[in-house]
Amino acid sequence: MAIENFMYHNPVRILFGKDQISKISKYVPKDKKILIVYGGGSAKKFGTIDKVKKALEGYKIGEFSGIPANPTYEKSMEAVELIKKENYDFIMAVGGGSVVDAVKFICAAVLFEGDPKDLFFWGNNEPAEVKNALPFGVVLTLPATGSEMNDGAVITFVERQAKLSFGSPLVHPQFSVLDPELTYTLPKRQLANGVVDTYVHVMEQYLTYPVDARVQDYHAEGVLKTLIELGSDIVDENKHDYAVRANFMWAATNGLNRFLACGVPQDWATHILGHEITEKYGIDHGRTLAIVLPSLMNVMRNSKKDKILQYAKNIFNITQGSEDEKIDKAIQKTAEFFESLGVPTHFKDYEIGEEAVEILTNQLEKHGFTKLGEKGEVNLEKIRLIYKGAL
Ligand code: NZQ
Ligand code: ZN
User: Fold this and answer.
1) Could you tell me which residue ranges the Fe-containing alcohol dehydrogenase-like C-terminal domain spans (predicted)?
2) Distance in Å, CA 145 to ligand 2 centroid
3) CATH number of the domain enclosing 316
4) Is 28 within the bounds of a domain?
5) Residue 88 Cα, ligand 2 centroid: separation in angstroms?
6) N or C: which end of the chain has fewer CB within 10 A?
7) Against a cut of 0.90, is the pTM above it?
8) Is pLDDT at 123 greater than 70 in this prediction?
9) Residues whose CB is less than 8 angstroms from the CB of residue 385 and which lie 6 or more positions away in sequence, other chains included
10) Does residue 209 share a domain with residue 126?
11) Is 76 in the pocket of ligand 1 (CB under 6 A)?
12) How far is Cα of residue 129 from the mean position of the Cα atoms in its chain?
């Protein structure tokens, strides 16, 4: 048991702190024609788009708005058409994970010669290779996904009724601005979603089986502890405490800039089961994870035993009782933490009943996700149990 071989390359330049938007022109070549892409309007309403435009004075600039939460292929393709028609060659993503994800796909799709639908991971299909992508920068307004410092995206296909993953080293952002003050306008629901999403990103890379990867384990535990210690302050939407939001923002980026994944096994079943819930019932991404994770920990308790016990001890200081009692307690503490943020952990809290178990399991089967988790043990039978345990 030792750290597995790995390759780690992360070229994303991080501009962290107050007023860093004003520095971005340093990292965009002067001859670029820039399309600013944003979501439903929060970035415009709260003045972030104006700040970006001011920072980019002198460039040729256009705007594209309306990227929805859980960004769709269909909307992204509208941007692709605009970019081709008006010859933009640099994109600025201003928003949360949805805008950043859409921009990643857009930047690859614009230069892709085949059908952009082939770029997606779909069950067991190998996605087509991205050979080229437009460069883009990010101004992040919602800490949660880590998309600002990674090479992945999740796109919803209305037509295929699926949320599919897309990724390529060529869609790492050129730079990402992380200004904690931009989080002050977030409502409690989005702050809580961000805490849970970050927490679960860490768990997907940490709560598997031990390979004696101490740097990764302690780093993961550090991010989890940060979230637990600051959770109630982070979700207090009226508390604009810079130090708290700065820790939150950096925790979220660290949750999924893939550093935690170096040399360790990874799970991701909670995410894949969660994506189906969003697709079917429209529940926010972070909230779906709070439904799935405690139940998954319970169903996979034997397979994950060593890591759950380590988590119990190092995160919650659970040292008394039998192994099973410690595991029960760790699962309970995890669910309590999510609930303390105002994020429910059961389907019934959303008035979703037993029928969901078969509907969601069938969707996963249809999408080819039948051997999930770090050991490929999360099969349809386990998936059913996990959804059932979350009712
Ligand atoms: O659309 P606007 O008007 O901008 O409003 C957004 C949106 O309604 C609002 N918002 C964002 N910043 C704000 C703000 N409101 C007030 N003040 C601000 N500063 O928040 C709402 C949610 O935004 P969204 O971008 O959808 O949230 P999030 O960052 O949680 O992203 C979720 C998406 O990321 C994917 C998810 O599947 C989901 O589609 N993920 C991407 C990952 C990745 N690329 O690595 C990993 C994640 O696990 C996740 O799957
Ligand atoms: Zn996530």
Assistant:
1) 192-363
2) 5
3) 1.20.1090.10
4) yes
5) 30
6) N
7) yes
8) no
9) 295, 299
10) no
11) no
12) 22
Which of 63, 142, 178, 200 has most ligand 1 atoms within 8 Å of CB, for mutation? Answer: 142
Output the six-digit token pair for 272. Answer: 């894949």
Q: Are residues 216 and 326 in the same domain?
A: yes
3-state secondary structure (DSSP) of residue 186? coil
* 253 ligand 1 Cβ < 6 A: no
Q: Is residue 4 assigned to a domain?
A: no
| Domain span including residue 85 | 13-181
Inter-residue contact 178 to 239 (CB < 8 Å): no
Choice from 10, 36, 37, 42 to test ligand 1 binding pocket (greatest atom count within 8 A of CB): 42
Average pLDDT, the chain: 97
Q: Are residues 100 and 197 in the same domain?
A: no
Considering the domain architecture, whether residues 27 and 170 belong to the same structural domain is answered as yes
CA distance linking residue 196 with residue 213, whole number of Å: 24
| Domain harbouring 50, CATH code | 3.40.50.1970
pLDDT, tens digit, 9 for 90 and up, residues 153-168: 999 998 888 889 999 9
Q: Which ligand is nearest the CA of 278, by number? A: 1
Residue 372: CA atoms inside 13 Å, Cβ hemisphere, count? 27
**First-to-last CA distance in the chain?**
37
Least confident of 60-74, 120-134, 364-378: 120-134
Together in a domain, 106 and 144: yes
User: How would residue 125 be classed by pLDDT, with cut points 50, 70 and 90?
Assistant: confident
Q: Which of 136, 152, 181 is the last residue of a domain?
A: 181
| Residue 3 domain flag | no
